[in-house]
């Protein structure tokens, strides 16, 4: 039997309303889940939560175990007197080495560690050229705004406000930092930098779980500026770096933490060799 136009209209309206109800219900359930997660009701059991293991190796050097890969940032270990007897570079594992810029206090152990481990080095195009001449060919060059998907997650290269060159005086391109997103979370490693307005772009594209920021002053931001940087990137959980290694960047740790607390931020100052989970 042929349906009348009224019947077709009623059916169409019914189907449209049903779809709208499903969409509305789905959005409602998503928001309920977000709220529940925030309140701790829908968290995974402790043994099922996926977290990253972060080990502080001194200065601005960290090893991060994502569960799928070992990442090492800015290796400066053997010359660091504060790390002696605590960090053994020959026992250090690395699948990827991420280099923010070419200064010696961020690259001293780069070639040695890259050759020893066979890790892929992520860096600027200019640094890749330099590394290739040193016999390090497992490299991946990046530039600002660009991102790439690796087997552990996605990495974006983000600008920094800092000078750059390699220890032998070779050009190293511009200094930068990294935004790393993986199944276990998303974090920002700023590298050496001053405070700058472009940091406000980060939360427009990324929701950070934590971030690494320099606080040593003189060559980078001090704690007060870094706390404002934490505000710019919309991140409350900050791990300190680039402090105490040299006389010119020694800090008062209590005052540094207070500077962050005034803006409702948490500053974590790790001991060399200390491992935490996030």
Could you explain the architecture of this structure?
With 278 residues, the protein is of the alpha/beta class. The protein has two domains: 39 residues; 231 residues, Ribonuclease Z/Hydroxyacylglutathione hydrolase-like (Metallo-beta-lactamase, Chain A), CATH 3.60.15.10. Helices cover 28% and strands 23% of the residues. The chain is built from seven helices and 14 strands. It has a seven-stranded mixed β-sheet, with helices on one face. The protein has a seven-stranded mixed β-sheet with strand order 7-8-9-10-11-12-13. The radius of gyration is 23 Å and the shape is globular. About 11% of the residues have low confidence.
Summarize the topology.
Blueprint: H1 5-39, E1 53-58, E2 61-65, E3 70-73, E4 96-98, H2 104-107, H3 110-117, E5 120-124, H4 125-133, E6 139-142, E7 147-149, E8 154-159, E9 176-182, E10 185-189, H5 202-205, E11 210-214, H6 223-232, E12 237-241, H7 253-261, E13 266-268, E14 275-277
Parallel strand pairs: 3-4, 4-5, 5-6, 10-11, 11-12, 12-13
Antiparallel strand pairs: 1-2, 1-14, 2-3, 7-8, 8-9, 9-10
Any descriptors?
single chain; 278 residues; alpha/beta; Metallo-beta-lactamase, Chain A; 2 domains; 7-stranded mixed sheet; 28% helix; globular
């Amino acid at each position: 039997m042929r349906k009348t136009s009224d019947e077709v209209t009623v059916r169409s309206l019914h189907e449209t309303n049903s779809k709208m109800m499903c969409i509305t219900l789905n959005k409602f359930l998503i928001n309920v889940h977000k709220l529940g997660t925030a309140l701790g009701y829908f968290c995974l059991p402790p043994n099922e939560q996926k977290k990253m293991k972060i080990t502080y190796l001194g200065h601005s050097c960290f090893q991060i175990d994502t569960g799928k890969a070992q990442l090492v940032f800015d290796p400066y270990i053997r010359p660091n007197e504060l790390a002696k007897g605590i960090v053994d570079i020959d026992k250090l594992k690395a699948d990827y080495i991420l280099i923010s810029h070419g200064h010696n206090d961020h690259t001293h152990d780069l070639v040695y560690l890259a050759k020893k481990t066979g890790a892929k080095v992520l860096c600027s195009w200019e640094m890749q050229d330099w590394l290739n001449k040193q016999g390090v060919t497992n490299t991946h060059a990046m530039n600002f705004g660009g991102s790439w998907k690796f087997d552990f997650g996605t990495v974006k290269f983000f600008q920094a406000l800092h000078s750059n060159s390699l220890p032998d005086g070779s050009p190293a391109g511009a200094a930068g930092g990294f935004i790393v997103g993986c199944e276990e979370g998303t974090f920002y490693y700023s590298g050496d930098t001053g405070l700058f307005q472009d940091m406000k772009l980060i939360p427009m594209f990324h929701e950070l779980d934590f971030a690494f920021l320099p606080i040593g002053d003189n060559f980078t931001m001090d704690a007060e500026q870094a706390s404002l940087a934490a505000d710019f990137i919309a991140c409350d959980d900050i791990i300190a770096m680039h402090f105490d290694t040299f006389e010119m960047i020694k800090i008062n740790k209590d005052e540094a933490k207070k500077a962050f607390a005034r803006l409702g931020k948490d500053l974590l100052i790790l001991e060399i060799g200390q491992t935490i989970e996030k």
